[in-house]
Immediate early response 3-interacting protein 1
Amino acid sequence: MFTLWTLIESTLLCLNAVCILHEERFLAKFGWGRQAGQQDFGAPTAKDQVLNLIRSIRTVAKIPLIFLNIIAIIFKLLLG
């Protein structure tokens, strides 16, 4: 059954996945490392924007995700 909790949980899992991506070990293999997103002139490409989004999520959402994960675990333990 698709519920609001399922949507929240899937969003939480996707944010966790983005936060654990490692630039040197995983993203650099596909050409998405730290150096790939540095462009001095012109409009940023879609690849640059995705890299900036990944870096921003890792920077901003790291601490709140810890608390959201704890809440989700407690919720799952109490309500199944």
Observations:
- The radius of gyration is 16 Å.
